[in-house]
Structures are given as C-alpha cells and as structure tokens.
Amino acid sequence: MNTCVIGLQWGDEGKGKIVDVLAEHSDIVVRYSGGANAGHTVVVGDNRFALHILPSGSVRPDTICVIANGVVVDP
C-alpha cells in the first residue's frame, strides 16, 4: 500500500507529524519538495528532533528515507 501526504496550502499544516505517525509502519519515506525553510519537529519517546531537509521518517531505525529530485538543498 502507498500513502501520500500533501498539504492544501503552504505553512504549518501538521504534515510532518502525520508523516511521523505513518512512518512507524512504513518501509520507505520520500520527501519530494520543499527546502530548508520547511521545518518540522518529531518527538520519539524522550527524544525531540528538529528536521528541515530530512523526511520525518529519518528518526525511525527501520525506515528508508529518500530525498527526491524536487527538494531544494542549501549546503
């Protein structure tokens, strides 16, 4: 099964939180757009992670994360 999370507007819609919940049960998480200005915070147990470029699933040890072609990377 494939699941896609897409926001209807720009800004804080909670997409990162939804992806984090779904990533717990997913094999692969892909970030396909956005840049460093789009941040999200993920809490796993007692640990808090502030992510910008990385997909929310990157803190899950068994989840493969992919940064796709449309993501703007600012080194």
UniProtKB/TrEMBL annotation:
Cellular-component GO terms for this entry: cytoplasm
Gene3D superfamilies xref list: Adenylosuccinate Synthetase, subunit A, domain 1
A GO biological process held by the record: 'de novo' AMP biosynthetic process
Pfam families given in the database record: Adenylsucc_synt
Key words, A-Z: GTP-binding, Ligase, Magnesium, Metal-binding, Nucleotide-binding, Purine biosynthesis
Endpoints of the signal sequence: none
GO MF annotation list: adenylosuccinate synthase activity; GTP binding; metal ion binding
Protein name: Adenylosuccinate synthase
Biological classification of the source: unclassified sequences, metagenomes, ecological metagenomes
